[in-house]
Amino acid sequence: MLIFSQTITDYWREQFLNGDVLYSDEVLTVAINPDLDEDSRVMVLETTDGRIMAVLTPAMADKVGLYPRQDLSEEIFRRKIKEAGVMLHGADYLFYFSEADKNVLLQENLEGDLHQLTEQDDAVFSEFESSASEQDLDDASVELDHWAVFGSFEKNRLVCAASMYPWEDDTQIADLGVLTLAPFRGKGHARKVVRSICKFAYEQGYEPQYRCQLDNHASTLLAKTAGFTLFGKWDVISPDSID
């Protein structure tokens, strides 16, 4: 995974290896960490190089029936969590800029009617929100009060917006969402807005992170069009999972 920055690789290694390793081979690593948050007491990461990392709290490991020196594989691990009634939420794709594509972005002069938005753009942003469906708003999670917000305009109308917030308080990763109003899709607005806000994030010392569900093909295409590279698939325990 050396094509990505050390910030990204170190962050995910810490999430999955900051505990006692229960099992490890050339493909699968399973660790136990008592410090996991309640909503992440089971996590699984599958990176594009074919490696799979899983981490659980000790209580969840006991529930699933995991113990040291156990012979495991991905198939066995997933079967065990299923048999224990542990449901995963459903994986997200994780996209980041490679170091090479980051350097291209930082040298780029983005054109078009693009602006960074502030609280003074409340009326413009409210009109934008009122023109979007509830489903699109929920999926995109674009908010004017986020850490950074950028928008693309057409004839003085906000037609596409992206916002970012720090992924966690102690990390230099910024998670982004983007939404283009339906009548204005396919015109390149989202790509320009995403690249603009990502360039801004880099200038503030943050690594941009783009997430989307595996079945969101339009969002996956946008990530690639905007210059991101797939890092892997990340899944966490479902809120509906049985304790």
Helicity level: 25-40%
Shape: elongated
Overall CATH class of the largest domain: Alpha Beta
Strand order of the largest sheet: 1-2-4-3-11-5-10-9-8-7-6
> By CATH's scheme, which homologous superfamily of the largest domain applies?
Gcn5-related N-acetyltransferase (GNAT)
Query: What characterizes the major β-sheet?
Result: 11 strands, mixed
User: How far from one another are the termini?
Assistant: 34 Å
E-strand count: 11
Give the H and E element order.
HEEEEHHEHEHHEEEHEHE
- Mean pLDDT across all residues, rounded? 93
* Beta strand %: 25-35%
Given the helix and strand composition, which structural class is it? alpha+beta
The CATH topology of the largest domain: Aminopeptidase
Provide the number of structural domains: 2
Poorly predicted segments: none
Radius of gyration: 20 Å
CATH architecture name of the largest domain: 3-Layer(aba) Sandwich
Number of contiguous helices? 8
Pfam families: Acetyltransf_3
GO molecular function: acyltransferase activity, transferring groups other than amino-acyl groups
Keywords: Transferase
Domain N-acetyltransferase: 104-243
Give an account of the 3D structure.
- It holds the Pfam family Acetyltransf_3.
- InterPro entries: Acyl_CoA_acyltransferase, GNAT_dom.
- This is GNAT family N-acetyltransferase.
- It comes from Paenibacillus selenitireducens.
- There is one protein chain.
- The protein has helices at residues 6-17, 58-64, 74-83, 99-106, 122-130, 134-140, 189-203, 217-225; strands spanning 20-24, 28-32, 42-47, 52-56, 92-96, 114-116, 148-154, 157-166, 173-180, 207-213, 229-236.
- It is 32% helix and 28% strand.
- The chain is built from eight helices and eleven strands.
- The model has no long low-confidence stretch (mean pLDDT 93).
- The protein folds into two domains: 6-93, no CATH class; 98-225, Aminopeptidase, CATH 3.40.630.30.
- The longest helix has 15 residues, at 189-203.
